[in-house]
Amino acid sequence: MYSQPTFSSAPGQTGAPFLGLRLLEKQVYRGPNIFGYEPMIRFQLDLRALEDYPTSALPGFTERLTELLPSLYTHRCSYGEPGGLIRRMEEGTWLGHVTEHVALELQSIAGTPVTYGKTRSVRGRPGVYNVMYSYREERVGLPAGFVALRLVNTLLPEEMQGVERLDLMLPSGLTTSLNPDTPFDLEAEQLELRRIVKRYAMGPTPQSLVDEAKRRGIPYLRLDEQSLIQLGYGRYQQRLRASITGRTSYIATETASDKALTKALLDRAGLPVPRGSVVRTAEEAVREARKIGYPVVTKPLDGNHGRGVSMNLNSPEEVIQGFQQARMHSRDVVVEQHFGGHDHRILVIGNEVVAVAERVPAHVIGDGQRTIQELVEKVNLDPRRGDGHEQVMTRIVIDEHVLALLGRSGLTPDSVPAAGERTFLRDTANISTGGTAIDHTDVIHPHNASVARRAAQVIGLDVAGIDFILPDITRSVHETGGGIVEVNAAPGFRMHLQPSEGRPRNVAAPVIDALFPKGAPCRMPIISITGTNGKTTTSRMVAHIMRYNGRHVGLTTSNGIYINGELVMDGDTTGARSARMVLSDPNIDMAVLETARGGILREGLGFERCDVSAVLNVQPNHLGLKGIETVEDLAYVKSLIVEVVSDSGTSVLNADDPLTVKMARKAGGTVAYFSLRSGAGCPSMLTEHIADGGLALVREETLLGDELVMYRGGHRVPIIRAREIPATLGGFAQVNVQNALAAAIAVAQDVPIPIIRSALGSFTTSFEQSPGRLNLYDGHPFRVILDYAHNPAGLEYLLELVAHLRPRRGRVIGVFGVAGDRRDSDIHHMGQLLAGMFDEVILREDEERRGRAPGEGARLTQEGALAAGMRPEQFRVILNEPEAIGAALQAGRPGDLLVVMPNEVEKAWAQVTSYDSSALHHEAYGVEAEARLAAPGTNEPPPAYTENPPSDQGSQHA
């Protein structure tokens, strides 16, 4: 194929076979992500031996690629000018970078223009690259990447070709003819991309409305595969389907689809309409035509887009033929008077005429040499023409209607029109059948505009397309004759947005004006909360405060989605899909979103910006997964939520966590801090922040106990004492003191301090209010704590709390298991923490072991505990979680403390509360009661705890 050296081995190697390209993984980001702030597709590409072959080392590669895709010359890559990419390839760049640009260009050629992309090498993995590019519709973007990889591959020397795992780039469930096993044909694959665009991408009308909304900062969500769009969030949302709005009357839409009823209503209102009636047989059509007088028009009663319409019929034979054409689209056919003149579409929005276009039917102009067929082919070469609605104009198709129309004039597709002779190919002037549009907005006569406005009002449409035929749009219809032949609901905007001739009109703007008048809200406050530990409890606290303040709150957590306190979906709902679900709910006016690392890495964020974000802490957890190798990597992921805070919003950071403090450099909005440390232990940067009048929430030690205090604008405002918050268990659960400080960020949304005080004073650790977070059950002779501690930081806080709760008589028994995706060192560390907490431990495992052998996690945990001083007889291994919890409950005796750390929180709580411990009650009789936690609202801590006061430090836990 190419005259160049053989590449059976990589340079400097002998005998090693060349392996080609290999796809390692793909990811579709549907919102802001760690690589950028817009939706992107990422695939990881291993160049393998091709790493040693930049484009400059591949003779003919650049020339051949630009021959196939000459529009790549417009890419300004690196040099900021047209031809920048070509220059880079000539100088030498890598194939991942080239593939990125090809994927972008293929989408643009197919009809979904995009421009943003980047390619970055993967740290520590030579030859491996993250290739990233933007998309408008992911079902177009993924196949574009597929075709791009195939194209780049085919331009390599034959011995270098091959792309392993290419199927990764095809979206699941998409019916497509793209097949990696077929010979590559760029033209055929581009046709397939255009077919996918036609099926899935938004048409020009909804796209114009979305673009106008985005220009105004109005968020949008696409709700189906067609054109159902949500603009705005929550209770402020408005919906559109094409140009039908949520305010469009159903009755008006149905009326407009009935042409006979429409004409009757307009006639009753004194508006000019053609005479005619509805028929069901060809004989009736001929009789009606004679009654009206030739020429006449036949059209389907409930048709659209000009389908089945025949005009200027002058004989019974033509009427019969027109009737048959209309009958293909409707049972009932309209026969009506033919108006002479030009076809105009007048667009009325909100009772105002916003655009006028003269529509010229599809036609060709003869040159005395070419046939009509050849002239059509020439016209269709216009790059502005495409299939369907994706381009400014539509390609002309010679079908039965065209043949019939030509036949009435004694012509065929093989006829040769004289030079300058215009031959019309359609009766109707619809753009969708190949017509063209000429803008006349500025010259319409006021009387004609008034007639169009009244027609829209009579039918009741907020957005209407009035089809008006008259000789001269600049003269009154009352003078020239003519009239309204149709009123259309859901009119297309294409002819006004990009007319073939004349000035384009931004007709999307008045629609958005009507849906969101000046000053009308389109967004609701979004509060996003992340952290290694504490995010679930803090999110629940914030939602609790906001509901106290009268807001209707949508909440996502690791336990489920709540709408105004009602659980509507259970499970881990901390990702982008759950966020979008909340933002779509019409009942809420505020969203509180727990935002987890996994969701950010999997799909990005479910919102493009937010009003308040809080990063609670960053601790080693889930390291070694999805490219996150260090705690600094994890901090980089979590920092995304403060990067997308709006300019008027607030980024809240933990002043006690160095990695969190560093996020202030790229945080959006105003930065606020919270801290458990005060006085001499207060971080110097926090002291300076407070001195500068910044917002800070701080725990301070006072004579009356720890107090949560707000500093803002140089003022100190006490909020509540820590032990008055039931969730702090008398002030000893330092993790919930810290969570409460973070939750007090509600002040950033102007929630009054008394509201925050009351809300925190009623927030408990009950299972109903905070499932899986320090839930206590005292219904047995022994106490049970259920908590979702699942990482070292969570166990550290629990270790401190158990030290305060340890009974004077009795044992502390734990049920614990690790997730299989933890590093061995993390599992050992957690085992060491168990040794300092429990007298007996029952080790379980999650059903999903994530690649580990059964019992491996329990073995590693036990190794860590044994190294820390526990004895083998203190362990039992029961891998099944319900069985492990059952064994602990059976082992419990009066005065014991059981600490259950489950994976299935709801099932574990049900098992604990339903356990029959009646046989133990006689043992409990006479046993000295253990000190219980102070009841909510009491001021004195339990005496049993005062002997061992808590430290100032507390680890965070969700």
Describe this structure in words.
By secondary structure, this protein is α/β, with parallel strands linked by helices. The chain folds into four domains: 21-200, no CATH class; 253-515, ATP-grasp fold, B domain (D-amino Acid Aminotransferase, Chain A, domain 1), CATH 3.30.470.20; 526-760, Mur-like, catalytic domain (UDP-N-acetylmuramoyl-L-alanine:D-glutamate ligase, 3-Layer(aba) Sandwich), CATH 3.40.1190.10; 779-931, Mur ligase, C-terminal domain (Protein-Tyrosine Phosphatase, Chain A), CATH 3.90.190.20. Helix content is 32%, strand content 21%. It has 32 helices and 39 strands. The two termini are 61 Å apart. Residues 1-16 and 924-958 have low confidence and may be disordered.
